[in-house]
Amino acid sequence: MITAIGAVARNGVLGLDNWLPWDIPEELAYFERTVAGAALVVGRLTYESMDVVPVDSFVVTRQAGRALRPGCFAVDSVEAGLRGALATGKPVFVIGGASVYAAAWPYCHRFLLTRIEADFAGDTHFPDSIPLAGWQVTAETSRLLPERRSGREIWCRFIDYRPPQPPRMPT
């Protein structure tokens, strides 16, 4: 099964300067717990922003011969990354960035999306091409969590989306 996971602000922002525009430790901890032990498909810029990158991370990059951390693999397409990740036998998570989400969504069985109920400045937005409005919400929980940069508490909605039709497999 292929699952995408991410977080998006109310105004559609996903990122700022290759990282998250918010600092919500409990939301980040949820992400880390959820993907622990999985094979990851990740874009190069997201990969470069990560302090810790687990083994069996498939990094989508146009930079042929790119040196990566031990246990990570450079791939030239999202489909190649998904095929490699599936071959590990582990759960597979697509973790961004925006162009990777946009290319991977047709293959996803689930999209675990945290909706951050506040606006944030940013330079990366959730792809308009992903038709989540047509997907079924199978679970949703809301929590009021502290955002450290602003000192505010912000509602975060943890939503489990499923597509209306079984996804196709990457070829």
Description:
- The chain has 171 residues and is an alpha/beta fold.
- The chain is built from 4 helices and 10 strands; from the N terminus they run E-E-H-E-H-E-E-H-E-H-E-E-E-E.
- An 8-stranded mixed sheet has the order 5-4-3-6-1-7-10-9, sandwiched between helices. Strands 2-8 form a two-stranded antiparallel ribbon.
- Strand 9 and strand 10 (153-162) form a beta hairpin.
- The longest helix has 11 residues, at 25-35.
- The mean pLDDT is 95.
Top keywords for this entry?
33% strand; eight-stranded mixed beta sheet; 4 helices; alpha/beta; 171 residues; single chain; 10 strands; two-stranded antiparallel sheet
What overall form do the CA principal axes indicate?
globular
- For the biggest β-sheet, the strand order reads 5-4-3-6-1-7-10-9
User: Gyration radius, to the nearest Å?
Assistant: 15 Å
Bin the strand percentage.
25-35%
Number of helices: 4
* Helix/strand order: EEHEHEEHEHEEEE
As residue ranges, the low-confidence spans are: none
Q: Mean of residue pLDDT?
A: 95
Which structural category fits the helices and strands?
alpha/beta
Give the biggest sheet: 8 strands, mixed
Rounded to the nearest angstrom, the distance between the terminal CA atoms is: 15 Å
Helical proportion?
10-25%
- Give the beta-strand count: 10
